[in-house]
């Protein structure tokens, strides 16, 4: 029996809190979904002044160099020819911890790159995992609330974490990665990075190709033993920040090879659930990695606050030749990231030196806090009869057709196949560590109901996976009920 109905801040009842309103089942999110906009906008304003997520991180300057010709897929100028170099700034971070938290906790790592191109800044804002816990932005504020501190005790809450995950089975793929050896990278230099979402590349002829980004570390993947990670959290909580800084100072410059999966545009009609559901990956056997270039980090920041803290990256920072997809979580991020920057850094965050593009900026934005360059002209509107600053028809986005009835749709309910495949791919020793990490994390959960629900998800992904978790928690009898 429902005791109270979920409402908006104004008291209006909420119809669906699991799925955003979209134009058709696989179409983009509609701005008329005021519940989603209210939820994301309020979420962006819940913490002052550090980032709500990715609060603690490290950054460095570097260069990206094209090593393979991909101009037949995209007209993006910084990818136009082999040998072309573009300056970049990279930021790596933990996700859930506060600004003073330890670097070596079990947590995904943010992996964000700002490219200073001649057509404006282009940002790839992803993680060190190719998937995420949720696939609809409507659920993101709730998810992060479970990762933060309990509003009553101000302590981290295993109950909240596992209650949410057990009620959101789409999280299982990412949970499996998080609880595996990959959950604690040895350093920021020894982890891969991903754009996570699917994006759209468009060439000069207007031909479209879906693309997924993979940054492959050239240092090799290395992870930390859980006991060593716990020790470092107490003895050197800034271990990852220190490692990146010292490596660059010693001229041991870390680098990553950017590869992409190129997926024919028509595949979106055949398998939209794979392309636009960020909880799933696209097979590299079917769509193998194609090398694009190399990113090398070769200069440390001169001032942590002005560079690492104030850098403002967003998947909405795009350049001609690169467009978005109808991935719902990506669509929500297009709004939420810019809104967070305007709240946290200010309306003029793009004029802060670390965010300032190398290309000319011509717009009619004026005034506001911390305005660096207000311009001398009296013209702050368009169209006008006094200057030649006009829109450019040549950079019209290619776009894509959408259709369907407006409604709140969920992606498919196949939560288990890829998580099970991932479990079975690991060695016996890696499986044992994964299970032990899960057991250790779930042991403090106070309600057996939550544990049982999560064990069910593990069991559906792989019977051995679920059985071993149940045994580790002393709940093997629940397996009989599945």
UniProtKB/TrEMBL annotation:
SUPFAM superfamilies: Heme-dependent catalase-like. Its cofactor is heme. InterPro entries: Catalase (IPR018028), Catalase_3 (IPR040333), Catalase_AS (IPR024708), Catalase_clade1/3 (IPR024711), Catalase_core (IPR011614), Catalase_haem_BS (IPR002226), Catalase_immune_responsive (IPR010582), Catalase_sf (IPR020835). It comes from the Bacteria. Coiled coil: none annotated. It catalyses: 2 H2O2 = O2 + 2 H2O. GO terms for cellular component: cytoplasm. GO terms for molecular function: catalase activity; heme binding; metal ion binding. Its EC number is 1.11.1.6. Residues 7-390 form the Catalase core domain. PROSITE patterns: CATALASE_1 (PS00437), CATALASE_2 (PS00438), CATALASE_3 (PS51402). It is an enzyme of class 1 (oxidoreductase). Keywords: Heme, Hydrogen peroxide, Iron, Metal-binding, Oxidoreductase, Peroxidase. Heme binds at residue 337. SMART domains: Catalase. The keyword GTP-binding does not apply. The active site is at residues 54, 127. GO terms for biological process: hydrogen peroxide catabolic process; response to hydrogen peroxide. Belongs to the catalase family. This is Catalase.
């Amino acid at each position: 029996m429902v005791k109270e109905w979920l409402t908006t801040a104004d008291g209006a009842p909420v119809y669906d809190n699991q799925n955003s309103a979209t134009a058709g089942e696989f179409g983009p999110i509609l701005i008329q979904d005021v519940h989603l906009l209210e939820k994301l906008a309020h979420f962006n304003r819940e913490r002052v002044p550090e980032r709500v997520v990715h609060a603690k991180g490290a950054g460095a300057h570097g260069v990206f160099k094209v090593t393979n010709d991909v101009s037949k897929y995209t007209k993006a100028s910084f990818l136009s020819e082999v040998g072309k170099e573009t300056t970049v700034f990279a930021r790596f971070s933990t996700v859930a911890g506060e600004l003073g938290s330890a670097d070596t906790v079990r947590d995904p790592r943010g992996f964000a790159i700002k490219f200073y191109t001649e057509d404006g800044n282009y940002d790839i804002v992803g993680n060190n995992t190719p998937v995420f816990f949720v696939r609809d932005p409507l659920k993101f504020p709730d998810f992060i609330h479970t990762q933060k501190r309990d509003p009553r005790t101000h302590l981290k809450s295993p109950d909240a974490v596992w209650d949410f995950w057990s009620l959101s089975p789409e999280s299982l793929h990412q949970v499996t990665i998080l609880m595996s050896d990959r959950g604690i990278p040895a350093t920021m230099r020894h982890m891969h990075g991903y754009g996570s979402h699917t994006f759209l590349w468009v060439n000069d002829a207007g031909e479209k190709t879906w693309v997924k980004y993979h940054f492959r570390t050239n240092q090799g993947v290395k992870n930390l033993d859980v006991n060593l990670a716990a020790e470092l959290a107490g003895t050197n909580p800034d271990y990852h920040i220190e490692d990146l800084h010292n490596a660059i100072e010693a001229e041991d410059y870390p680098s990553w090879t950017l590869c992409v999966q190129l997926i024919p545009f028509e595949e979106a009609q055949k398998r939209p659930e794979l392309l636009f559901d960020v909880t799933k990956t696209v097979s590299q056997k079917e769509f193998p990695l194609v090398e694009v270039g190399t990113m090398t980090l070769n200069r440390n920041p001169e001032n942590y606050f002005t560079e690492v803290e104030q850098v403002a990256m967003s998947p909405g920072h795009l350049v001609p030749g690169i467009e978005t997809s109808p991935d719902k979580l990506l669509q929500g991020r297009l709004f939420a990231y810019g809104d967070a920057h305007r709240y946290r850094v200010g309306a003029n965050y793009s004029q802060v030196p670390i965010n300032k593009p190398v290309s000319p900026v011509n717009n009619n934005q004026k005034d506001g806090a911390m305005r660096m360059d207000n311009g001398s002209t009296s013209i702050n509107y368009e169209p006008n009869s006094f200057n030649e600053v006009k829109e450019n028809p040549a950079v019209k986005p290619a776009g894509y057709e959408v259709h369907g009835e407006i409604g709140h749709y969920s992606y498919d309910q196949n939560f288990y196949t890829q998580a099970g495949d991932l479990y079975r791919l690991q060695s016996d020793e890696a499986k044992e560590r994964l299970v032990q990490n899960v057991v250790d994390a779930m042991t403090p959960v106070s309600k057996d109901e939550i544990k049982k629900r999560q064990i069910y998800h593990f069991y559906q992904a792989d019977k051995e996976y679920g059985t071993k978790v149940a045994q580790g928690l002393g709940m093997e009898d629940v397996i009989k009920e599945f």
